[in-house]
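Table S2 (text version). Query chain:
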Amino acid sequence: MDPEPGTRFSLFGKLRGGARRAEETAPDKKAPRKDRSVEARPAETSPMDFWRSARARSARSRPVQPQPAGPLGIRRRVTGIYVPPWAPVVAIIVVVFGILGLLFYARSAIGSPRIGDHNHAPYAFFVCGEKQPNFREYHTSTGIHTHGDGVIHLHPSNSTGEGAGAAVRRWVEAEGGKLSGSELRVPQYTATTYKTSDGCEGENAEIRVLRADSGIHPLGGAAPGQSFGEAIAKCDSLPWSAYENVGGRHIPQDGDCIRVVFGPPQSEPVVQTDRTILPEEEATRTVELGIDGSEVDTILFPARIDAYAAETIKVVVRNTSVALHGLRFAGMDGEYGTPDDYVTEPPTLEPGQEGTVIIRFDNGGEYEFRDELGDQATGTVTVSAGTAPLPSPTPAPEERFDADVSIEATEDSFAPAEVSADAGQALRITSPRAAASLTTFAWRVRTASIGPTMTSFRMTSYLVKPAS
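Corresponding structure-token output:
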């Protein structure tokens, strides 16, 4: 008996073929067995067909499988698409680079300042024509801060401080102030909120944020003409016509002059520069001065500088404390914050930092100087009438001392081990032998150089102990 078409040649071909036909030709499994009609499934092409039927069959003669009627479903359309094995990898690469591109575009859209920038902008606040004090030092979490020197330091430390995060309004409000179109509250110094509806001295008031270009770029650089003091003086000297109203959303750029004004519309407060800057080359001698202690316990040493009338002196100021300090000399008028003042450059000295200031007083008398930030410690410049002698190896005028002290130094000790003196006394200390360990004195007196020659400093505490 010949095998039936559609079965493969096998010892069990009859069984396999019959079982397959029973499954494939069943019209409906749910129908009764007696109603089922056995229909032969179109035969598959098999290499054995030629031997069984004695005639060749081609794959082309295989009947086309019937397709279900009606449009194909979405699932059949999708699952029927051929996807190469490398396609998912390409898709992932495209998505990753797309995300990086978006991040780069968003980053480039953020304006200056950015993380790593060091921009500086002098500022001033005016209320009803009166200039307000500079903010004391404060730092924000964004890195936009001030050192109490009248300068906004824009050093973003995170993305929050970049671009619009460094706007004038945000900087003011970070310290408890307020800056809007109708209200102004100056941080730190007053709890008063100035409202435009209240007016200013009987006149209508408005709030303006003005900006001008100091022309100093970069501001705070090491080159001559880039110092903070020179930038502040330049901003103060600019006419009000050089300023434009930019609003509180303005982002200061390096070298900008910022003015926040509460007053009558278009009013021009009288602005005077608060310092005089003398050329360093005019100085005929140098005096060293140290600052120690905190902002509420500042100590100046020496607390007195002797000078001749019209003598130009370079004062080198070193901050030996762990706090910020600065130094301002009241001018001939005896008042602080006026154009004849002398201020260190930079105006704020970091711990361990050194600054300079050039001073000159044309008339005899006593002129005060003080810590620019703490306002606690003061000193005096005593100016003698007459003219200073010609420069010589011996500084003029001659220092006056209250006592002489000799310190014997060894490798690990001093004799005497303690030096007692009244506060404010000037001692002349000599050492028979120079020792490197004698270059620093602990507690209140620091950086008092001791060598084979005599060096003096003014005591600023009741007890001074040499450093071990």
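Notes on Table S2: The helical segments are 13-24, 49-53, 74-79, 87-109, 168-173, 228-237. The CA atoms of residues 325 and 373 lie 6 Å apart.
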